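Hey team,

Filing this mostly as a record. A colleague (T.K.) asked me to run one chain through the structure pipeline before their review meeting, and I want the input and output archived in the tracker in case anyone asks later how it was produced. No errors, nothing strange. Just documentation.

Input sequence:
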Amino acid sequence: MVVKEGMTNRLLSFLDTLVEKRNCQGFSEFRKESMAAYDAFDQNKPEVREAWRFFDFSVLDSVSDVARDALEESCLDKRCSDRALCDGVLNFSSDQQGEQDFVACSEGQLLGDKVMSVGLPRSVFSYVNSLTFSDLVLLKVEAGEDKGFRELPVMICSTKGMVVSRIHIVLEKGAKATVFLPHRQKGSSTELFHNVFLDIDLDEDAELQVDVVDASLQCSQIETVMVRQQRGSRFVLNTLSYATRMSRRDIHVSLLGENTKTYLNGLAVLSEKQRFYQHADLDHHSKNGQAEQCFKTVLSGTSFCEYSGLVTIQPKAHGCDSSQENPNLLLSDQARVMTRPQLKIDADDVLCGHGSTVGQLDDAHVLYLQSRGLKKQEAEFLLLQGFVTDIYDNFSEDSDLVEDVSAITEQLLSYV
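Output structure:
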C-alpha cells in the first residue's frame, strides 16, 4: 500500500495487519482485484487528499490498537448468528418469511451477471472491506416482485474491536423493496470500529428504499454506499445518525439510465466531541434524471460536521434536475460545520441547484412563539423539533424509530 499522508502509523499498521491476516473463503477473483486496488491506493492523489482533508484519523488509533492486538493472537473469527452458511453467503429468499428468509447459497448462485463493487476510489477502507469480509448478506428480488418491508441483520466477520459488514442488494427489472438497517450497540463500553459496505444494483424500473439508523455510543464507523441505477429506477436513502463517537458515510450514486430518480435524506444530531463526515456524489450519465439531496445537522458542545456533496452532469445528460440542500443548526459557540455543495455541469438544458445554511435559532422566531403564549424553552424546543421532523417523515412507517426519536427528543430538550 502506498504511504498515506495524514493517516497515523498505528492506523497504517492496523490496516496492513488486517489485510495480511485475513482468513476469508470464496470470491477468489474478487479478492485478487481488491488486493490490487488496495496495493495501488495512494492518498496523495489530489481527489483523495481533498476527500479526507478534514478527517481526524487519530480518532481510530485506540480502536485499531485493540483490534490489532487481537489479530496477533488469532485470525478473524466469523460470527454468523447461528445461521447456516455456504461459501460465506446468505441469500435473502423470495419465497419464505421471517427468520427463514436467510438461506445458504453458493458463490456461483450469488449474483448472476451482477458484479460486486471492489471499492470507492477515494476510500481505502472500502477496499479493506472487500478484502476482509467473510459473511455477505444478499437481498435479491426477482423481476416484478414486490418484496415489501424487510429488516436486514448485519452479518459480520469480527475480532475484538473490529467489525466488517457487507450487504449487497439486487433488484431485478420492475422489482420493489424497502429495507431497514439499524446499526445499534447497546450496553457496551468496548470501543468498536465498524467498516460497512452497502452495494446496490437496481435494474430497469426497480424501486428501492433503504432506511439506516446509526446509534452506537462507543462506535467509530466508516460506511461506503455504492449504487448503480438503470433506466426508470427509483432509489431512496434515509439516514439517521446520533450517539455515535465518529461516523463517516461515503455515498456514490451512478444514474446510468434515462428517467432515473434518486432521493437522499439525512439527519445527524451531534453533541460533546462527536464527529460526523458526510460525502455524497451523484453522477448523471443519461437524460432526464431527477435527484434531490437534503442533509441536516444539529450540533452542540464541541462537535464537528463536514458535508461534501458533488453533482456531476455528464455530456449529453440533458434534461436532468438535481438539487442539494445542507441546513445546519449550531447550538454552541464551540461546534463547527464545514459544508461544500458542488456542481459540475457538462450538458445543456439542465436544472441544478445547491445551497447550505449554518446558523443558530432565530431570535425573531423564538420571540414570535413567546408572543403566542409559549415559554422560551418551549419555543426553542418546538423550533428544534420542526427542524428535524421532516427527515423522520421520509422513513418507512414500518422502520422502528420509536427508540431513536425518543432519544433524539430527550437530547434536543437538553439543549434548551
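Quick notes for T.K.: The longest strand covers residues 192-202. The chain is about 25% helix and 40% strand.
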